[in-house]
Amino acid sequence: MRVLVVNAGSSSLKMNVMEDGTSLAKHDIPADRDGFDQDELVAFLNATEVDTVGHRVVHGGTAFTEPTVLDAGVLTTLRRLTNLAPLHQPKSLAGIDAVATARPGLPTVACFDTAFHATLSEVAYTYAIPAEWRSRWNLRRFGFHGLSHAYASRRAAEIVGQPAAGLRVVVCHLGAGASLCAVADGRSVDTTMGFTPLEGLVMATRSGSVDPGLVLWLQEHGGLSAAEVAAALEHESGLLALGADADMRALLPRAERGEAAANLAIDVYVHRLVAGVAAMTATLGGLDVLVFTGGVGENASAVRASAARKLAHLGVELVGDLNEKARGDADISSSSSPVRTLVVAAREDLEIERGVLSALLGS
User: Fold this and answer.
1) Can 3-112 and 161-343 be said to share one CATH topology?
2) Is 97 tagged catalytic?
3) CA–CA separation, 81 vs 61, rounded Å?
4) Which candidate, 45, 122, 282, 361, has a CA 20 to 30 Å from the CA of 322?
């Protein structure tokens, strides 16, 4: 079965025709705050031969905890969730609509970034806010990047040659968006993103966690509207705000030249990353495998090295040459280290293909 994987991210839309885990054709479309060129998606679709389509959808809420065949009712529910993931959900829905218009009747499956975190315990997903709020609006932690975390944790078990059962893994998905996931026995037990993808680590243009009192102060005393604050935290914060550049590839050489702003941006980024990994490790009761994935996780050896130095007390130790030369899936840990540290190439496409086959064929 040939599956067209449509992966709408915050900065691009990636398309990949997959068959039996093999990529047959790829095409990426740049995306901005207003979306992407839908005509380009349709042109790629019309130029390929596919049997079904799998869409990455960031937010499935509590309604969708596994890959789901799309129909009108499912789409209505997904549209209602847009305000919880305003950077991503509209782009996913635009991709779904474009495919449905161009190829009506083509079986289509939604694969959700929140689904992997459906195994979070009540303790892990509950906010300490009034019970009326929690019940009236279903205010809770959902977690995101689940497709990446699911694949990376499963691939990590394969690389270290151990079954998922009994393995304690922390996955660092570091891209334009960034999050951590604590995985025990192959299941998500904790993660850094919460009610929306804004919580947690410092990201490219997103702030990550800030004191909610700061947000209230900006509105009450700073005179900013809720929309202004939201736009700034989503689009004008993170690395961009600290280092005047959202791209880690540009920040690292500037930091090497001694630019203060670039160094501050990277130092804050790593500080939050290390604190988050330590918190995930505490949740797991120890750490067996640390995984770096995503654009920054896979390509920024300096970020990995800096984080590892600060995590040495947890048993993380890298081999410098292995870390520098890592390309694709790689074990970069010292042979004497009690923690295996891996680089795993992000393959959300494989996870989506797997989800599509599960939804349609039960395989």
Assistant:
1) yes
2) no
3) 7
4) 282
Question: Active site residue: 32, 34, 37, 113, which one?
Answer: 113
- Strand arrangement of the beta sheet that strand 12-19 belongs to: 22-30, 12-19, 3-8, 52-57, 108-112, 68-69
Q: How would residue 363 be classed by pLDDT, with cut points 50, 70 and 90? A: low
Distance CA 178, CA 303 (A): 13
| Spatial distance between the Cα atoms of 228 and 234, rounded to a whole number of angstroms | 10
List pLDDT tens digits, range 270-302: 999 999 999 999 999 999 999 999 999 999 999
- Distances in whole angstroms, Cα of residue 215 to Cα of each of 54, 104, 177, 227, 228: 37, 44, 21, 11, 11
Task: Tell me which residue has tokens 């047959």.
Answer: 24
Q: State which fold the 3-112 domain adopts.
A: Nucleotidyltransferase; domain 5 (3.30.420)
Cα–Cα distance, 229 to 211 (Å, whole number): 13
Judged against a pLDDT cut of 90, whether residue 360 lies above it is answered with: yes
Give the bridge partners for 27, in sequence order: 15
**What is the per-residue pLDDT across 289-335, written as a single tens digit (0 to 9) for each?**
999 999 999 999 999 999 999 999 999 999 999 999 999 999 999 99
Would you tell me how many other CB atoms lie within 10 Å of the CB of residue 32? Answer: 10
* pTM listed for this prediction: 0.95
Residues 70-121 pLDDT 10s: 999 999 999 998 888 877 888 899 899 999 999 998 999 999 999 999 999 9
> Is the CATH number 3.40.30.10 carried by domain 161-343?
no
Domain boundaries, the chain: 3-112, 161-343
